[in-house]
Design a protein that fits this description.
- The chain has 396 residues and is an alpha+beta fold.
- The chain is built from ten helices and 19 strands.
- The strands form four sheets. A six-stranded mixed β-sheet has the order 6-7-8-3-9-10, sandwiched between helices. A five-stranded antiparallel β-sheet has the order 13-12-11-14-19. Strands 2-1-4-5 form a four-stranded antiparallel β-sheet, covered by helices on one side.
- Strand 16 and strand 17 form a beta hairpin.
- Helix 3 packs across helix 4, helix 3 packs parallel to helix 5 and helix 4 packs across helix 5.
- The structure holds adenosine-5'-diphosphate and magnesium ion (MG).
- Adenosine-5'-diphosphate binds next to strand 2 and helix 2.
């Protein structure tokens, strides 16, 4: 059992110069000036987590994603008890975490920088924490062999970390946490040093492991492709703020704001800052340059129920839904790039770069760089954002 809940959690790191790590008044003053110029500095320090409310359900596989510096590592370290909150509270199974010392939390953290003992064999690395706990030898042996089997390391037990591949070393690191039988597994960008093929493989092993253990997994990654494919819950962060939390399908299909819409999805969503929303006889339309799209009934209903007024909006269309069509906005082809069965076509439309993804079989011989095409989209595929706040006009 381990559900995690953040209530109004805030984390501010004090400036390093105030922590007494820098000696000499001039140096300390210079360091302070430098840190205060950081975008998220306050008078007390660097804000890593703004007021945050978050529920991580027991047994879920939750992925934290967002650009580097958005606060993922901080959030994991707070859960593990390696950092303390500046304000607010963290609950583990309903108990305030401030009352639980880190060594009683039963939480394991695997990070990108592995902490394997280079002079010990895989077997001894795996057995290490159990020996400290003075478990009987046969019990240690049983647990080590079970972990090795789960992770496909049976043949490697007498090797040292230096004799293993990157993927195998990462498996040993996971094995070390597995052996402790924690109730929460935290992963901090654990596979970013591995080659793509090994990454894909170890990722699917991690999913399988989660399925068989049924424990809470929290996984941080700045790679949105990994984020979309790995977990059953996705949390998108920016600058210490949670911008959206939901299932991967919800976050992809119904991005709550322009940031999430732009961060999740490759190629990136196309944005038009000069779109106009109009209402005609109970129907909503969005127009942009030559494009005129009637919103689907469902989307119109949401706008009507929220009392959205006609006016300027930001229009967003994912590349797979911005397609060459008989009518639409005119755009000039810049280049084409074929990726097996899909082709990415890059366009220029009045200074805005646009991307359209079409099945390669539909690409016509005349679509060459320099030619102009018309691009259209369906009313149920468009996203609209408030030009001031960036919030989606469709989210509640
Ligand atoms: P991420 O893991 O998403 O890249 P981090 O949680 O590491 O983000 O960092 C969030 C913010 O907190 C960044 O602005 C970073 O510079 C700052 N930060 C992280 N750790 C410390 C620290 N120990 N002292 C001061 N600032 C820190
Ligand atoms: Mg990090």
């Amino acid at each position: 059992m381990a559900a995690i809940r953040l209530e109004g959690a805030v984390k501010i790191y004090p400036f390093t110069s105030l922590k007494g790590r820098i000696f000499g008044r001039k140096k300390a003053r210079e360091a302070l000036e430098r840190e205060k110029r950081q975008p998220y500095a306050t008078s007390e320090g660097v804000i890593a987590l703004r007021r945050t409310w978050l529920d991580i359900p027991d047994g879920s596989f939750t992925v934290l994603t967002g650009p580097s510096g958005c606060g993922k590592t901080t959030l994991l370290r707070l859960i593990a008890g390696l950092e303390s909150l500046t304000d607010g509270e963290l609950y583990l199974d309903g108990r305030p975490a401030s009352s639980i010392p880190p060594n009683e939390r039963n939480i394991a953290l695997v990070s990108q920088n592995l902490a394997l003992y280079p002079h010990l064999t895989v077997y001894d690395n795996l057995a290490f924490s159990l020996r400290i706990r003075r478990l009987p030898r046969h019990e240690i042996d049983e647990k080590v062999r079970l972990a090795a089997e789960t992770l496909g390391l049976e043949g490697k037990l007498d090797k040292r970390p230096g004799e293993l591949s990157g993927g195998e070393r990462q498996r040993v690191a996971i094995g070390r946490t597995l052996i402790r039988d924690p109730s929460v597994f935290l992963y901090d960008e654990p596979f970013s040093n591995l080659d793509p093929k090994t990454r894909a493989q170890i990722r699917s092993e991690l999913r399988r492991l989660h399925g068989s253990l049924g424990k809470t997994f929290v996984y941080a990654t700045h790679d949105q492709t990994e984020a979309l494919s790995l977990g059953d819950r996705l949390v998108v962060m920016e600058n210490g703020l949670i911008r959206q939390a939901g299932t991967p399908a919800e976050v992809y299909g119904r991005p709550a704001n322009r940031f999430t819409a732009g961060f999740i999805g490759t190629p990136r969503m196309n944005f038009f800052d000069d779109a106009v929303l109009t209402a005609e006889g109970g129907e909503y339309w969005v127009r942009c340059r030559g494009l005129k799209v009637r919103l689907s009934e469902e989307r119109s209903r949401i706008l009507a129920s929220k009392g959205v007024k006609p006016g300027r909006v930001v229009l967003g269309i994912r590349p797979v839904y911005l397609r060459p069509s008989p009518a639409g906005l005119e755009a000039r082809i810049l280049s084409l790039s074929v990726n097996w069965d899909e082709t990415h076509i890059f366009f220029d439309s009045g200074g805005t770069e646009l991307i359209s993804v079409v099945p390669s079989g539909e690409v016509q011989a005349g679509w060459l760089p320099g030619t102009s095409l018309l691009l259209g989209a369906e009313g149920r595929r468009v996203h609209l954002f408030d030009p001031e706040t960036g919030a989606s006009l469709f989210s509640s």
